[in-house]
Design goal:
Helices cover about 15% and strands about 40% of the residues. It is an alpha+beta fold and about 260 residues long. The strands form three sheets. Strands 1, 2, 3, 4, 7, 8, 11, 12 and 13 form a nine-stranded antiparallel sheet that branches. The radius of gyration is 27 Å and the shape is elongated.
Length: about 260
């Protein structure tokens, strides 16, 4: 039985076999479980988890450019350093969807499209700018900005066969949902500092002295206009760079089959 899966952007293929379809009555289950153990317990551990739909993603970026971000409502400049897989199946299972049931010796070809979605979950109060969020999302293999939902699709027209795993039962039900894998994200951050207006004015006047003589006077006037009454200017202090570690729960598709008698 060949199993092949793809992301939403590519298309998920489950069992691409042809043949007559047979679908038994729907086997309803909760739409989510708070923990992975709750999920296994509900099914009495009598399920077969289908192989992972994707391999652990490879890092696309090692070190990024600097971007804005906030941590606990404090503004920083930050850059992405690395992402590291810590553990699979951390947290629960969400957006569970029943796919189909197949009788012993039978098969079923899907007639509808089934989609499951969830967003990345954060372990800390951190807000990424678009650029930094996109880079981290790509590094996690999400193909999109990290703050957006990630969706997986089982497309119409693919066939499920009764699995060998369910030998001794007369029906098998297939399900799909979203689980989470824990990733360690390492950033470098630089705090913002307030530069007094006198310092900014002095910097500006010094820059004017590097201009051609005929431009110096107008440059000085602009400096006084811009910084003469300013209350200060914020800029990142790259002399105080520190390392910041946060954890991200990356949504990943989970597929499984449950054996039963009816």
């Amino acid at each position: 039985m060949k199993k092949k899966f793809f992301w939403t952007v590519f298309v998920l293929v489950v069992f691409g076999l042809n043949g007559p379809a047979l679908r038994s009555q729907t086997q309803e289950v909760p739409t989510q479980f708070g923990t992975y153990e709750d999920f296994l317990t509900y099914f009495n551990h009598n399920i077969q988890i289908l192989p992972p739909t994707i391999s652990p993603p490879e890092l696309i970026y090692n070190v990024s450019d600097w971007y804005d971000l906030t941590i606990d409502d404090i503004r920083y400049k930050g850059r992405f350093i690395s992402a590291e897989l810590v553990e699979y199946n951390v947290g629960g299972i969400e957006d569970i969807k029943y796919v189909c049931s197949v009788g012993a010796g039978q098969q079923y070809t899907t007639t509808t499209t089934i989609q499951t979605c969830s967003a990345v979950k954060m372990s800390s109060n951190i807000s990424f700018s678009f650029g930094l969020a996109s880079i981290i999302g790509l590094s996690l293999g999400l193909q999109r900005e990290i703050t957006k939902q990630t969706c997986y699709t089982i497309v119409e027209g693919y066939t499920y066969q009764f699995p060998d795993f369910c030998s001794g039962y007369n029906s098998a039900s297939f399900y799909t949902g979203i689980g989470f894998d824990l990733y360690k994200i390492t950033l470098e951050i630089a705090p913002y500092q307030v530069i007094p207006p006198e310092e900014m004015l002095l910097r500006c006047l010094r820059a004017c002295m590097k201009l051609p003589a005929e431009m110096v006077e107008s440059c000085r006037e602009e400096c006084y206009q811009q910084y003469g009454s300013s209350s200060g200017y914020e800029e990142p202090n790259f002399n105080e760079i520190s390392t910041y570690v946060t954890y991200i729960y990356r949504p990943a598709q989970r597929n499984w089959v449950k054996c039963f008698n009816y």
